[in-house]
Amino acid sequence: MKSRLTDRQKHHIATRQASAELDLEPGVVVTHHGTELIVETATGALLRGKARRTLGALTTGDRVGWLAGEDDRIVIEQLHPRINTLIRPDTHGKQRLMASNIDQVLIVVSPRPWMNPSVIERTIVATLDLPAEPIILLNKIDLLDTADTATRRELEHSLEIWRAQRIKILPISVKTGAGIPELRAELADHTSMMIGLSGVGKTSLARSITSQASTAAIQALSEHSQEGQHTTRSSTLYRLDDMPGGLIDAPGVRDFAVAAQNQQAIDRAFPDILDLAAGCRFANCSHDQEPECAVLEAVAAHELDARRFDNYQTLKRERPR
Ligand SMILES: Nc1nc2c(ncn2[C@@H]2O[C@H](COP(=O)(O)OP(=O)(O)OP(=O)(O)O)[C@@H](O)[C@H]2O)c(=O)[nH]1
Ligand SMILES: [Mg+2]
Ligand SMILES: [Zn+2]
């Protein structure tokens, strides 16, 4: 096999890596669009630039080493190892990085638009799989009184299930400010990523709790306006005002179809099913068609939500072995 790199290229890369460890400035990727990036420096300044192509795709939250380039622009020379990465498939099925180095995921839901509970469960599993802590942020509670009966019933039913699962739920309203102090307390000292449908209020929330989210330079890179509506097109990390921590705004996602890698992530998201499974006749019961299966009995008796059980089985099947 022929080596892809010539000896001269290898030498060049080795030299660059060696010098990189000596005098690179530390930074964090704040947002990007195409190859254009904004990096936060150690002193909190925001600088624009590009990354060496050899680094591959960078994403919001990446810790990097950079050098000053021409015209106030920087060149990112080094990518530090990531603690975790949140990935989602794009419309062409290609895997895209959404953000890295996250320890909390805020699953933002609202009465309008209302997200299907199976997708919320998938997002909880994906969060636990990172691993990071999930919190359900129920925004627009000011609209609850006018939500249609079907949405309200589904919402109440879902809230009941999540409460029983000990998933943290924070009801808030960006419009009225309800629940915002409680949310700020949850955000302190964490890097939190917001995930939710387009239009649930993620960017509105970022603007109401961080002054950085109204920075024009960031908006120019991370936003897309169409017919008077602003939609977020790339993830952006904002620093919290007056406290350590970060909040990542992201484009709306309709589904979270990334298979979980760890069975424990699935089990932690469905402790009710795990509890029931202790009563199955066979310890390795797959709750498919085994006799004396306590889980299937609970579904038949309407004690376990059939939709929730189907979603659990689907997540288990999708997991790569
Ligand atoms: N009634 C009500 N409306 C809200 C609230 N929060 C946000 N909105 C409205 O919801 C709409 C969408 O808000 P955005 O913040 O752009 O939503 P987003 O989640 O960032 O959407 P994408 O960027 O497309 O993913 C805007 O018209 C907001 O004014 C709230 O608490 N109550
Ligand atoms: Mg947005
Ligand atoms: Zn069983």
Give the SSE layout.
Blueprint: H1 7-23, E1 25-33, E2 36-41, E3 46-51, E4 63-68, E5 74-79, E6 85-89, E7 95-100, E8 104-109, H2 117-129, E9 133-138, H3 149-164, E10 168-171, H4 180-187, E11 191-195, H5 202-209, H6 216-222, E12 223-226, E13 229-232, E14 236-239, E15 246-249, H7 263-269, H8 271-277, H9 294-300, H10 306-318
The structure holds guanosine-5'-triphosphate, magnesium ion (MG) and zinc ion.
Zinc ion is lined by residues 277, 280, 285, 287, 290, 293-295.
Q: What features would you describe in this structure?
A:
With 321 residues, the chain is an alpha/beta fold. It has ten helices and 15 strands. The chain has helices spanning 7-23, 117-129, 149-164, 180-187, 202-209, 216-222, 263-269, 271-277, 294-300, 306-318, and strands spanning 25-33, 36-41, 46-51, 63-68, 74-79, 85-89, 95-100, 104-109, 133-138, 168-171, 191-195, 223-226, 229-232, 236-239, 246-249. The longest helix has 17 residues, at 7-23. The protein is globular, with a radius of gyration of 22 Å. The two termini are 32 Å apart. The mean pLDDT is 88. Guanosine-5'-triphosphate (GTP) binds at residues 139-140, 142-143, 173-175, 196, 198-204, 230-232, 251-252. Magnesium ion binds at residues 202-203, 232, 249.
